[in-house]
Amino acid sequence: MAKLFRVRQVSYAWMTILLVLVLAIVWLSLESKNYWRLLGLLAPLGLAVDQLTTRIQIRDNGDVWIRRGFTGVSRLHGISKLIYRKKAWKSQQIVLRHTKGHATVDPKDRKGFIASLKEANPMMEYVEE
């Protein structure tokens, strides 16, 4: 059975910037009566929905799948090392080394994610910096 973890949500500062951007586009569109400018809302709203619907899935064989809202799935096979950086920037604290390179993940429950990944992949090296 695969275990699902939610990612940390977009911060309030970024959501405020996104809201100001949306309101500016709507105001400019309504004032100039050029409603084609409303198409500019698709990109920021799409990115926000994509971020809010992202899930991290740990498979039984130890692989990690990052399921994004619109942009597909990233499959991380053969995870050999998990680096947990306590003092790094929030979204770069957990680094996974796998067969094709590395990836950073930002689960909401970091300790639970690390414990589940250790359980699913006992041969993985764990480093805490």
How do the strands and helices of this protein lay out in sequence?
Elements: E1 3-6, H1 12-32, H2 42-52, E2 55-58, E3 64-67, E4 73-76, E5 81-84, E6 94-98, E7 101-105, H3 110-120, E8 125-128
Parallel strand pairs: 5-8
Antiparallel strand pairs: 1-2, 2-3, 3-4, 5-6, 6-7
Walk me through the structure.
- This is PH domain-containing protein.
- Keywords: Membrane, Transmembrane, Transmembrane helix.
- The chain crosses the membrane at residues 12-30.
- The chain has 129 residues and is α+β, with helices and mostly antiparallel strands.
- The chain has helices spanning 12-32, 42-52, 110-120, and strands spanning 3-6, 55-58, 64-67, 73-76, 81-84, 94-98, 101-105, 125-128.
- The strands form two sheets. A four-stranded antiparallel sheet has the order 1-2-3-4. The protein has a four-stranded mixed sheet with strand order 7-6-5-8, with helices on one face.
- A hairpin with a 5-residue loop joins strand 2 and strand 3 (64-67).
- The protein is elongated and about 60 Å long.
- The model has no long low-confidence stretch (mean pLDDT 87).
